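Record type: monomer structure entry
Structure origin: computed from sequence
Chain ID: A
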Amino acid sequence: MDDLQAKHRKEQRDLQSRITQKKNSATKKTRKAVHSECEGLERSLKEKQDREIAELDGVPSMTEHLEEDEVLDDPVSTAGNEDTKATMNGPARPSNPDQISDGAASVIETRKPNRTKARLARRAAEQEALVARAADEAAAMPDLREQERSSMAAEVLIRGLEEKEVRPDGHCLYSAVADQLNSFGPGWRVGKLPKSILQHDDKQQPDYKCVRLAAADHIDSNPQDFEPFLEEPLSEYTHKIRETAEWGGHLELLAISRAYRVGINVLQGDGKVEEINSDDVNHGDGATVWLAYYRHSFGLGEHYNSLRRTKTSG
């Protein structure tokens, strides 16, 4: 329908251009004839376009109805044939416009389905089928969160550990390490560590912040060990560790291990353990930090929890 309407608008513009040219070139003698010719051209175009619209919609055009009526009323076609005249002079055409509208309505009710509407309905059905298929595929996929949680619980139990949940706020790695250090005993309290580890006078910092500061201080003091692995200036990197909630990873764990002289074991859901050790760790005193590492179980993404030794495990 849109293509046909565009075609009709172009035909109307072309006809108006022709009519304008004819009227401009008309003289006083030919003006009346040109005017009649132009009216005829406009009428012919309108009838043609009405027929095309009616054919597209499957409804007889009003022009076709009028042509049929004109044939029925033509005195030449009915002259000399009384039987035909009697038939033609049967029920008279309704002169009431309301009756004409009712007749047109009955024709519209029996017209063919609109192809544009059918195409839109078909597309909508295809979209619904795609959505349903995607939902089925999602339902068939494994629940990675549940799998990771179940696997981690089994691994924690096997190793005689118990998990302490840490808030997933961007500080989870540092909070989990602080919880581990504090669980080792009074001499390991994060806020009371010697100045050689924590080079800041303010001891009122939260425990996770103290661990952040210790990691950043160690990296600043040993740039040759960390700069080759950085994609930004070392000063900017350590500023993020100290002053933001930037997540920590392997480099930060290595710095923490060296700063506090402890071993760090990171337990993953599949049972693998990543060991990060300082060169001068004394494993005989039991100073080993255990962390649980999750990939799928928390909304923010990667997450660390603290894994404490149970009382029965010693």
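Annotation 1: The CA atoms of residues 94 and 103 lie 10 Å apart.
Annotation 2: Residues 61-88 have pLDDT under 50 and may be disordered.
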